[in-house]
Amino acid sequence: MLRKLVDYKKLSHEVAARLIEMYPYGYGDEDIIMFKNVHGEIIEAVEVKTEDTIYLVKISKSLASFISNFEDNMEKELDDQPETETFESPSGEMELELNHEEEESKLD
């Protein structure tokens, strides 16, 4: 299995979501992995496992803030997405999908 040391700011959306899933209320002392890097610096990280990779996510004050604000940020992203409607024909097939934001801008 591949192991990667990463800063949380460089995580993919999938791995960031997995991080939040694993530590929804933050991480504790028992979750922290400590080791020395090649420069002799002590690194603290939390482990996030995916199917093929173990990510060691570096701990910082901003990581704790990221975890606590993740849900708020996701809600804002979802609110910013345009509203979409889907209509079905009587036979049950999808016929039309309207994006109200695009529709309004075309009318202007």
What are the SSEs and their pairings?
Blueprint: E1 2-6, H1 13-22, E2 32-36, E3 42-49, E4 53-58, H2 61-80, E5 84-88, E6 94-99, H3 100-107
Parallel strand pairs: 1-4
Antiparallel strand pairs: 2-3, 3-4, 5-6
Protein name: DNA primase
Organism: Arenibacter echinorum
Biased composition (Acidic residues): 75-86, 94-108
Looking at the chains present, what oligomeric state does this protein adopt?
single chain
> Would you tell me the structural class of the helices and strands?
alpha+beta
Helix proportion range: 25-40%
Any idea how many domains? 1
Fill in the keyword field for this structure.
globular, 32% strand, DNA primase, 35% helix, single chain, four-stranded mixed sheet, 108 residues, two-stranded antiparallel sheet
Care to give the gist of this entry?
With 108 residues, this protein is of the alpha+beta class. 35% of the residues lie in helices and 32% in strands.
